[in-house]
Write a structure and sequence with these properties.
Elements (H helix, E strand, L loop, with lengths): L3 H13 L6 H7 L5 E5 L5 H10 L2 E6 L2 H9 L5 E3 L14 E7 L8 H11 E9 L4 H8 L25 H10 L2 E12 L2 E4 L4 H4 L2 E8 L3
Length: 218
């Protein structure tokens, strides 16, 4: 069982490696030596951590050329430029052990198309997204009459990159609509480099969620 000292060391390690609080949950879900494709991998912090801790075969797709250059400088060379709204035609069916799509689905124009694509390509798929039904969002919209701004959703309404915000409840329906199933659901309460799984009223109290999804059993 992890001790407080272990949690402190883990938090310091994550801060030093530029990881979001939910990333250590994702790292725990990955089997050593897996082929992992991170969609919208940014500057490659998660892939780098997975390479160091799990010895994965890392691949990424990123739309920003600047971020790709940072990935290469960090020692994550296998990152290609691509627009996720155009799909994953370069990847064969079930060719990747794990596909990760974290904090990216809400910025896509065609999220339904992409989730079907990642389930085609990946034997296992991990989705991460901010929960728009979190109590802080409800309070700002319901009582203050303002578009919500939180630590997970820090943008003004007029300059946000998020165009398809969702909730945990909506995400379950979204996965089903895509013809997939939720294998595991991990609602989280995050703060700086720490996170805790939410057991009670997750759609109200969790500000972030991780879904492990897969194709329906034959």
């Amino acid at each position: 069982m992890a001790t407080l000292a272990d949690d402190i060391r883990l938090g310091l390690w994550h801060r030093a490696n530029g990881l979001a609080p939910e990333h250590h949950v994702i790292i725990d879900l990955i089997r050593p030596g897996s082929r992992v494709l991170d969609l919208g991998c940014g500057e490659g912090d998660l892939l780098k951590a997975l390479m160091e801790t799990k010895g994965i075969r890392a691949e990424g797709i990123e739309i920003s050329e600047e971020c790709i250059q940072v990935c290469v400088a960090k020692g994550v060379p296998n990152v290609q430029h691509g627009d996720l709204d155009e799909g994953l035609a370069d990847y064969a069916d079930q060719s990747v052990d794990v596909v990760i799509l974290t904090n990216t689905i809400q910025v896509l124009h065609r999220p339904l198309q992409l989730i079907q694509e990642i389930a085609r390509v990946g034997k296992e798929c991990i989705l991460g997204f901010p929960n728009f039904a979190h109590w802080a969002c409800r309070y700002q919209l319901g009582l203050l009459g303002r578009m919500p701004k939180t630590g997970r959703l820090p943008y003004e309404w007029y300059d946000t990159p998020n165009i398809h915000l969702t909730t945990i409840r909506d995400a379950r329906e979204f996965v089903s609509t895509a013809g997939l199933r939720v294998v595991r659901e991990i609602p989280l309460r995050t703060k700086e480099s720490e996170c805790r799984e939410v057991k009670l009223w997750p759609n109200l109290l969790a500000d972030q969620a991780i879904f492990v999804v897969a194709r329906q059993a034959a």
